[in-house]
Amino acid sequence: MDMALSMDNISISNEDENSMMKAMHLPCGLVLNMVLKAAIELDLFELIAKSSAQKLSSYEIASQIPTKNPNAPLVLERVLRFLASQSFLTCNIIKDDDGNNHTSYKLTPLSQRFIPDKDGSSITPFLLLNADPVSVNSCFHLKDAILLGEVPFNMAHGMPAFEHAGKDSRLNMLFNKAMQNLTCIEMKRILECYNGFQGAKEVIDVGGGLGMSLASIISKHPNIKGINFDLPYVIKDAPTYEVASEQGWRGFVEDKMREVRLRWFGHVMRMGTDAPVRRCKRLALDGFRRGRGRPKKYWREMIRRDMEQLQLTGDMTLDRKIWRMRIKIEG
Ligand SMILES: C[S@@+](CC[C@H](N)C(=O)[O-])C[C@H]1O[C@@H](n2cnc3c(N)ncnc32)[C@H](O)[C@@H]1O
Prior knowledge:
By secondary structure, the protein is mainly alpha-helical.
């Protein structure tokens, strides 16, 4: 056995020592997330990154944040020391002429992940989402997923996550930004080695959020038609990416998406009432009310808004040719 520590009557293996250290750290797991959240809210990493020497002391940071608390540098010192112990910062101690220690802190590759990169993306929004009370409160119900077969988020908030996001614009934005930032970082890496989009004509991103995956794909493959398919309250915040194709369609992802939605709607409206697929019509009109808690009104509202924009009426769906002509996006 590999002995790490050996005294007269005690011997502790490396394995024992490591598992004990790990077990002692685990109950503090939440602390790291919360300290990071505070550091981000105080812009600590950005302040260090922007400083001329790329390093700051707790006193220098305290002088740049909006506080009148005289003890701020002392409390900050503890936060910075903790972040250094977790490899988010390195520290450098210098003795001045009076023999006093001055500690300054520098960023590490780990903390640099929390500062926007050249595309403006970072891990920060994802951390803020996970450290948000809405997310944390769901975690209190994890055991209920097993004992009661319930979804923890629904138990904590009385509704499914995406319905909640539709009612809480702050959470909606927090979630979408977190996804957008992660996707931007990941898609860059994926597109460097994945060739599966070569030769594709159209890509529909189901649940595409703010459209970052499509924007990345289309910027590498400009001939692809990209369609972002998501909930209306997500789409309304999605930036419009202009798609310029050399051969085919030119236009905006949003418009093409509306055409696809209306084409499908026209199709189900023309089905015979006894056709099994006619169920889709009810789904379309009832807002995909398939499962418990599924938001009822989104699809109905989306189609109603689309039809209003193009000044369409329900009876137009009956003539396939006219319908297609009215909904088509030219390009
Ligand atoms: C994990 S996120 C995907 C994020 C996205 N791929 C990105 O890169 O940002 C799941 C997405 O599914 C969407 N979503 C949830 N329910 C939906 C539904 N019924 N129809 C369409 N989109 C839905 C959410 O709004 C959310 O944007």
